[in-house]
Design brief:
It is built from four helices and no strands. It is mostly helical and about 150 residues long. The chain has two domains: about 40 residues; about 100 residues. The longest helix is centred in the first third of the chain and has 37 residues.
Length: about 150
């Protein structure tokens, strides 16, 4: 009898603990999403006009980069397919690697252009803060690394 009660209590505790952690995980994910959207809004003394301009520039930048990211993922998947197996065509692998590099370069150029566009609407004090904290604000996702040969 004691064993059944103890088992029931432990099961209830696991259920309660699991639910609590699941809710915290969802809240943490939402908070991360909010930080991504508002990361530039931490620049001190931004005017409403600057905030609006940054949001518009960010949206335009995302519209340009999203298709490139999609292409990059497709090329990386293609590379995985052609670089594994018994008959690997090294020329095709090299060509795909060059295409991946070209896409990454295009993305890097667009990111830097966006960064310079944001800087162009900031005051000198805001630029100092922005330059010092840009890498912290723009925490990058894990880089897509090329497979090792």
């Amino acid at each position: 009898m004691k064993t059944k009660k103890l088992t029931l209590v432990v099961a209830i505790l696991f259920f309660i603990t699991g639910s609590t952690f699941a809710q915290q995980g969802n809240m943490a994910n939402n908070k991360k999403g909010m930080n991504k959207q508002n990361k530039f809004m931490n620049i001190p003394d931004l005017t409403d006009a600057q905030k609006t301009q940054i949001k518009e520039m960010r949206t335009a930048n995302m519209k340009e980069i999203t298709p490139l990211r999609n292409q990059l993922r497709e090329k990386q998947a293609h590379l995985q397919t052609i670089s594994t197996g018994d008959n690997v065509n090294k020329q095709e692998v090299d060509k795909t690697l060059e295409e991946i590099s070209d896409i990454k370069l295009q993305i890097a150029k667009k990111r830097e252009s966006f960064r310079q566009d944001v800087r162009s609407i900031l005051t000198d004090e805001q630029k100092v803060y922005f330059d010092a904290n840009y890498n912290k604000m723009n925490k990058k996702r894990p880089k897509n690394k090329l497979p090792r040969k």
